[in-house]
Design a protein that fits this description.
- By secondary structure, the protein is mainly β.
- The protein is built from one helix and 14 strands.
Length: about 210
């Protein structure tokens, strides 16, 4: 997740990814992540990023077939949607505005973040984006960013995460004290999980 005011810096050897809060996930805020060495030229079997580097492999980054970062999807303060950043040039190339809901009243007290919570499913087939204004999560196809649909969830969706097999999205709804479970195939909410007060940053952990 990259929010307004965050920055990306790559070291001269292009192996270090420096991050300022809240770029990395809460457990590693302010930390520096070291990436494995680049594979030899022409070696398409090696992965540049592995599962240890969650900020690279699980964040809203697009990874082409050769495991090189291509685009970053960035949520901005006071913007209902996300920006598209070219990873190679670090320049914004476009913006996508989330759809309004006809007749609906926009949510208040959103702390300057009408859209907060974004992520690419582990299979890299869909991008999911929260709307705090209208209390839904929107699904976009990858890589063409075609809107697949919106799914109503609890009030003030604030973050999201995925099942490892990319079949479900879990949306933390701070205003509803619950987590909405979304079926990716049907684009429907299939469950609400009651949780504690104002859930926000949720993650998926695999125990082995």
């Amino acid at each position: 997740m990259i929010e307004a005011g965050s920055a990306i810096e790559l070291g001269d050897d292009r192996r270090k990814l420096h991050a300022e809060p809240p770029f990395v996930r809460p457990a590693a805020r302010g930390a520096e992540r070291l990436l494995p060495p680049r594979p030899p030229a022409g070696d398409e079997s090696s992965e540049w990023f592995d599962d240890e580097h969650a900020v690279a492999t699980r964040g809203p980054f697009e990874e082409p077939a050769k495991q090189r970062l291509s685009r970053i999807f960035v949520q901005l303060s006071d913007f209902h949607g996300f920006a598209i950043v070219d990873f190679a040039t670090h320049k914004e190339t476009g913006r996508v505005t989330l759809p309004d809901v006809p007749g609906a009243t926009k949510g208040l007290n959103i702390q300057g973040s009408p859209s907060h919570g974004i992520g690419i499913a582990p299979d890299h087939k869909t991008l999911w984006v929260n709307s705090k204004w209208y209390h839904y999560v929107a699904a976009y196809s990858m890589p063409d960013l075609k809107l697949l649909g919106i799914v109503p969830v609890g009030h003030y969706p604030d973050w999201l995460t995925f099942s490892p097999d990319s079949t479900h999205v879990y949306v933390a709804c701070a205003g509803a004290n619950s987590v909405s479970v979304i079926d990716v195939k049907s684009l429907k909410e299939i469950a609400k999980i009651p949780v504690g007060e104002a859930p926000k940053r949720n993650i998926t952990a695999v125990l082995q």
